[in-house]
Amino acid sequence: MASNTMRKVSLRNLAAHKLRLVLTVLSVVLGTAFVAGSMIFTSTVSTAFDGIFNNVALGVDTQVTPKESNSSGVPDSVLDQLEDNKTELGIAKIMPSYSGPATIAKADGKALQTGGAPSVGSAFQPPDQRLSDTESRLVAGRAPAAPNEVALNDSAADEADLKLGSTTKVATTRGSGGPMEVTIVGLLNVPGDTSGFTNVQFTESTAKDLFTDGSHSQAIDLQAVPGVSPEELKTRVGALIGDGYELRTGDQVRQDEKDNINQFLDVFNYILLAFAAIGLIVGTFIIYNTFSMIVAQRVRELALLRAIGASRKQVTRSVLLEAFVVGLIGALIGLAAGIGIAALLRALTSSTGLPTASLQIGASAVIACLVVGIGVTMISAYAPARRASKVSPVEAMRESATDGQASLKVRTIIGIVLAVIAVALLAIGAAGEGPGAASTVGGGALVMIFAVVFAAPALSRPFVGGIGTVLARPFGKIGQLARTNAVRNPRRTAATAFALTLGLMLVAVIGTLGSSFKGTIDDAIDTGLTANLIIAGSQGSGFSPSVSESVSGIEGVESVVSFGAVQAQVDGDNVWGYSPVGDMETVTPYEMVEGPPTVEPDGMVVGERTSKEKGWNVGDTVEMTSFDGTVVPVTVTGIFKDNPLVDPWAIGSDAYQKLIPEPLRTDVFAAVKTVPGANINEISDRVEDATADYLTVKVQTPAEFKGEQSSQIDQMLSVLYAMLGLALVIAVLGIVNTLALSVIERKREIGMLRAIGMARAQVRRTIYIESLLIAIFGAVLGVLLGVAFGWALVRTLRYWGLGDPVFPWGLIVITLVGAAIVGVLAALWPASRAAKTKPLEAIAE
């Protein structure tokens, strides 16, 4: 009976304070919406990709591929073995695969942009040779029969404004071949075709010439005769060709493709969930603050309940019941908002080439949303609920609630101890380099956050009091009153400000990282490059080595140095570097520590950091193993001071050709040096004309290259800032919530001030200044922490070539000014409510 009564009291209390209910629910909604949205969106995209990969390797019972994806492929000798033993093995059909990256020009001569979807070239397979009837099929025209004839998937043809009989160009990013002029003789319907996907199909012999070295294939697909299972065929083929290859059934191929994309989606999901966690952490402090104030305002009510027989457990349960209802409502609304977020993300990504499907609202998303929303709210409300249960009946006789001014001594000492530990960890981490040092900095940052949680109340008094003295002075007695209100309950002030502290701390960390990355790039270009033009592939891709050859003969070009990408294995570890074609010294002034700067054909020069890390010293022979298993001994002839453009090492042309098969050779970038006194703009135009047919090549000045790199970093940062906006929105909501409840708590006080002559405008101004002081406290604390963490983190990233920390002073100033504006805006509504307080009613209450 008593339990039912307490339940009714809790529910009626919620119903009687709808505004307070709405404000608290919003704190839950904003965090849970991201949890639900991220899970629903990734599940939706995963389902869409599953639909595509269900069409992969159809009709394939066994697929033979090399164990290393960067190898030349499966030798033709294996194909001959399989052909010679078809009957014994139980093979019905054999289909070798010849494919690779390829870009086609639109009708206007410019490259067809895929928006991130694949753009590949492959071999056309006649219907009688296909393993499945559902593979790409002609819907118009005929099969390509000559080297300059291609078939193109119809969706790409529509996008490129091409049709049967159109003449255009195709460029590949690998190998030494230049752009091809081709005629479209067929249009294809490709299963699983997505927006932006491009498939150019050549004759089998042309595809083999373009994408292999002439004696390999990327894979061999096998179809078994009736009565032979895929597993049985896989076993038989493995016994024949040996252990040097990877054999998978068609089901395994499809599942591996799904697993690969799901790994990417998991990373994306973790990023979204990380921001949801930030929102929930910030929301936790707001909910805790809200329930603390609610309990403080209801001391007399709770004491009366105790006086008429309610037990401590019943009081605790009544507060937790309110928290449960708030969490449940917030979670349900958050789920609805999450569905909206997922729909918006789906709409945004569908235009970039990602496949789409109907929204997948699974049970896991619903359960996670409910568990997180209700759990966070009840955990946040538990401490206030415990305090509520300790209210003694005699409190009902007191005039006012306890002010919460308990001693801060213990928690301040804990905060100081944690801060000392955090500073030590940050210093140790900043003094080192690499993953271990970065982890130490991360640990120090986490400890420092806890230190702030404990010590912020004690810190708020001198800080808010100090800035309050300065900022409130022009407002006279009104300013003094606002300053007093801001410091009268330091626990509440600190909890309210912490939400803003956490959000702006992350903004400052990300801003420092971004500025440091841009500064490193700028320094590398300004001090490490003497070339006048840079040639690079679009969207971070490489380009054919023949590009540099076509540029070298242009009038006004003194020299061209191209940098080929090198991947190999040393002692079982994957390593990567460059192979320059041309004299590197003419385009980048790298300084030698030991040995001559010249890169010998079978030698290598190594960066100072790499030399220490790998133990590669002058005179040592490093045995590099290609992904085909070829061992190439390379002699270290010199060590240079770390240079971002040349790091980590560069090998000679002979070693490069032995390690990298011709079809896999790709240039990362090329540096062009012009003759002294030449007009850079004119030469740039000539280089652009000479490379236009390669479609994916960009020609830029160093300043343009720096601008593009900075723009890409800014784009990534803008996405992060937008997502961090969630934490800032919650922080603003927390200030609004705290001030609104504070106005209710101080209703009699405000009424008394109004009764003795305070004008409504003065009441509003008092709340504005109070909110401003709290916001500035939170912002300054957040910026200081963020800059410190960012500085330490950048120092650890020297391991990967990042330069000295660069602080985003402009962002810091904008952040602090923005925080002040946010403080005033957050106070508009609570201040308006306070100003409407009727003196007589407030005093009578």
Write up this protein.
The structure is a single chain. The protein has 845 residues and is α+β, with helices and mostly antiparallel strands. The protein folds into four domains: 1-54 and 271-399, no CATH class; 62-260, no CATH class; 460-530 and 703-845, no CATH class; 533-700, no CATH class. It contains 24 helices and 24 strands. Strands 4, 5, 6, 7, 8, 9, 10 and 11 form an eight-stranded mixed sheet that branches. Strands 17-16-23-15-24 form a five-stranded antiparallel sheet. Strands 18, 19, 20, 21 and 22 form a five-stranded mixed sheet that branches. It is globular, with a radius of gyration of 34 Å. Residues 111-132 are annotated as: Disordered. Belongs to the ABC-4 integral membrane protein family.
Summarize the structure.
The protein is an alpha+beta fold and about 850 residues long.
Instruction: Describe the sheet with the most strands.
Output: 8 strands, mixed
Q: Tell me what portion of residues adopts beta-strand conformation.
A: 15-25%
Tally of strands? 24
Total helices: the number is 24
Category by helix and strand content: alpha+beta
Q: Which regions are unreliable across 5 or more consecutive residues at pLDDT < 50?
A: 399-405
Distance between the termini: 31 Å
Q: How much is the radius of gyration in Å?
A: 34 Å
Which key phrases capture this entry?
Putative ABC transport system permease protein; alpha+beta; transmembrane; ABC3_permease_C; 5-stranded antiparallel beta sheet; 8-stranded mixed beta sheet; single chain; 4 domains
